[in-house]
Amino acid sequence: MELRHLRYFMTLAEELHFGRAAERLHIAQPPLSQQIRQLETELGFELFHRSKRKVQLTEAGQVFLDEVQQIFKQLEQAIQVGRQTSRGEMGQLVIGFVSSAPYNILPNILRTFRSSVPEVRLELHELTTNEQLRWLRESRIDVGFVRPPIEDDTLNFEIIFQESLIIALPDTHELANHSNVCLRSVKNEPFILFPRLLAPGLYDLIISLCQQAGFSPNVTQEAIQMQTIVSLVAGGLGIAIVPESLQNLQRTGVVYKAVQEATLKTAIAIIWRQNDTSATVQKFLEIARLAVTLEFVVRTSVLLCPEED
Q1: 157 and 269 in contact (C-beta within 8 Å)?
Q2: Mean pLDDT value across the chain
Q3: 191 confidence band (pLDDT: 50, 70, 90)
Q4: Residue limits of the HTH lysR-type domain (predicted)?
């Protein structure tokens, strides 16, 4: 039994006329009659009562028609799901991200992806850069948002966001009312920093920035998450150098100040396995690039055309 036999049957069941059914199927009437006979022989029961005046479904034919219609609905659904999956529009995507990513580019990318591809289920994991590299190698996540550098030939990455570093101070600090801060003025302050192992690129950039100002930071407290670092600053345990987007974390007791000295920018990169052929991953990368481009255009427009007072 082939699908075409079932299609012949369904068309005849709808028309109840061999001539009209054959015309719809673009075949001659005798071959259609022959195919229906062969189907009935294979099934072991009659599908139609035939007379010179009319064609009618038998009781068994009607029951068979109902079941066949369900089969074709399921088949159409399977085809649709297959097509959507091949376009990366269905399935699941597991995403890793560093703790600072939700304060810059990540929310916009996720919002754009969810609105464009609502049938893909997202699973998110907050992980350090090194954890994400390991999880990618173990296929536990599909894509990640990390702090470069990335030194792994099995992984692809693209820089999607760059930002300056700023200083987080307790709001009671003597420099809290300054518009910006010279790094040399905080060289004797206790610093709060994360362990280098968690994000070597960002860690080295912070240390290098201090050394260029003529000192090595006195790290008196370590914390893993950026949110925790900011909370400890609010508690008066020290100061911290953090990515600029952390200003979006509005925490009582903390003020953020620009650094007077010129600073290199820290980056967020999107990362995925080189050998990953998943259409869903490719769709996510496509939408992420588009979201980043649109955000850049919006920011540029705001800078060029500020609102009038």
Answers
A1: yes
A2: 88
A3: very high
A4: 1-58
Predicted local confidence at residue 217, as pLDDT: 95
197 in the same domain as 52: no
**93 contacts 143 by C-beta, under 8 angstroms:** yes
Q: Has residue 110 got a pLDDT over 60? A: yes
Residue 3: predicted pLDDT: 86
- If you average pLDDT over residues 12-40, what whole number do you get? 91
Rounded CA-CA distance 243/105 in Å is 13
Name residue 96's beta-bridge partners: 125, 144
Whether residue 61 is found in the same domain as residue 99 = no
22, 146: one domain: no
- Using the 3D structure, point to which of 86, 119, 137 is the last residue of a domain: 86
* pLDDT tens string 46-62: 999 988 788 999 999 99
- Residue indicated by tokens 């699908």: 3
Alpha helices, H only, 16-162? 18-25, 29-43, 59-86, 106-116, 129-137
- Domain span at residue 127 reads 91-161+267-304
Residues 6 or more apart whose Cβ sits within 8 Å of residue 145? 95, 96, 97, 98, 101, 105, 106, 132, 268, 269, 270, 271
Is residue 22 one of the residues assigned to a domain?
A: yes
Cα–Cα distance for residue pair 239/19, rounded to 1 Å = 87
Token pair belonging to 141:
């996540």
Confirm whether 309 is domain-assigned: no
